[in-house]
């Protein structure tokens, strides 16, 4: 089950569970659309993969036992361990390779 992390790991922007600005890689590294497009060039700085929009978990319980009330979003904020220069250098080194080919 997705953690639905509460923030962008790069700029620390709040990304609530219903945010359409949240993007994740296959490891659930979470970044905002601005950082993905402008700083990271669709390259996850942690794994090198690409990003997809994070799904939105329904607030309402449409099926018994599922929904945000039963599976709340994480409250643990995560931050990248890399500097802005390291992020830019890493992204630049592999951004020309399509995510499906990395």
TrEMBL record:
<protein>
    <submittedName>
        <fullName>DUF1272 domain-containing protein</fullName>
    </submittedName>
</protein>
<dbReference type="InterPro" id="IPR010696">
    <property type="entry name" value="DUF1272"/>
</dbReference>
<dbReference type="Pfam" id="PF06906">
    <property type="entry name" value="DUF1272"/>
</dbReference>
């Amino acid at each position: 089950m997705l953690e639905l992390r509460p923030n962008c790991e790069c700029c620390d922007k709040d990304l609530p569970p219903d945010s359409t600005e949240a993007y994740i890689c296959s490891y659930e590294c979470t970044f905002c659309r601005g950082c993905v497009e402008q700083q990271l060039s669709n390259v996850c700085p942690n794994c090198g993969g690409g990003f997809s929009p994070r799904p939105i978990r329904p607030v309402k319980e449409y099926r018994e036992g599922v929904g945000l009330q039963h599976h709340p979003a994480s409250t643990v904020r995560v931050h990248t361990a890399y500097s802005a220069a390291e992020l830019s250098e890493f992204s630049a080194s592999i951004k020309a390779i399509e995510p499906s080919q990395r």
